[in-house]
Amino acid sequence: MTQVSARVSWDICTGVSRDTAKNDGLGSKLRDAAPAVEEAAKTYRAAALTRSLHTLREQDFQIPGVPGPEVSGIAYESGMRGGSGRVIYDEVMEGRERDLCPMCQHSEVYELDHVMPKTAFPALCVAPDNLVGICEFCNSKKSNITSADARKVLLHPHFEDVSRDVWLAAEVLPGTRGVLRYSVDPPLDWDPVLKARVRNQFRFLEMATRFGNRALNTLGGMRQVFGEQLKKNGATGLRVFLKDLAASHQAEDLNGWAGVAYDAWAEDHDFCCGSFKGTGIPAARRENLDSPDFKIKWLQNSARHMSSARYSAAAVGEYASLKRAEEGVSDVRIVLAK
Questions:
Q1: Residue 50, Cβ neighbours under 10 Å: how many?
Q2: Which pTM was predicted?
Q3: Tens of pLDDT along 214-231?
Q4: Based on CB atoms within 10 Å of each CB, which residue in 95, 103, 228, 264 is the most buried?
């Protein structure tokens, strides 16, 4: 994260704004707002550090005399993305330790997100603390959503780190060739609000589905390797091999989908005995089990939704069952992907 202050970022990004006969002193209004922007950034940072972003009110983060969308267009779009502040934009995007999105730990970072939406909280539109590089999927899902419910506030990558504790879990779904069900299993000593927030983020960003699909794709490419290990070293040898792979991945990220996947496969007796090869599945059903030909549709809040991910025949039933178990979801259907 860049060390540039919110005040300096504001001054740079609004530096070319001028007063004209038609803009009613817009340049002066933006320059005069600099002290208020600095205080707004301090208020925001304090809330982020104390996990109280849900208490912030839009009316306290406005620029007097200038509508939020106009502030965002001038300071962020023209001043930061397309102007002198681009160096700050690039520093935020490039100043992270990992390539993966800090919101989901699944996809690569491609876009810059405003934790508090830039048009609703214009005083924070170029504040570095409010800018986070995330993936396209998470940015689209998050959109301009905020919440006054502390349990539904997404974790702030700059100020909240839950990577030191193991909270991600997975298990092999019975009767499958290694399809995984991911879930949140937080430490007992976490406070209830943090547990709720992690579970909400996991559900909101569809991490169970995305992790499960990634694990299934990886499994497809590793079945031959696992089969060779099983033939050469038996079930115990395969388990040791899987545990070693899990440890290698978890050394980098305790809650990464890959490390958790290898550990879940290692802990499953049937998997280590060869269920990943399709043992016990009738020959007539083996073909195309892993072909991603299906999607899931469901009703939630009176609106029809469809999964962005495709599922194989081996996995779609299990994922449909998981979706049916979600609160507020009904009329879950399996349909052919077009």
A1: 10
A2: 0.78
A3: 998 899 899 999 999 999
A4: 103
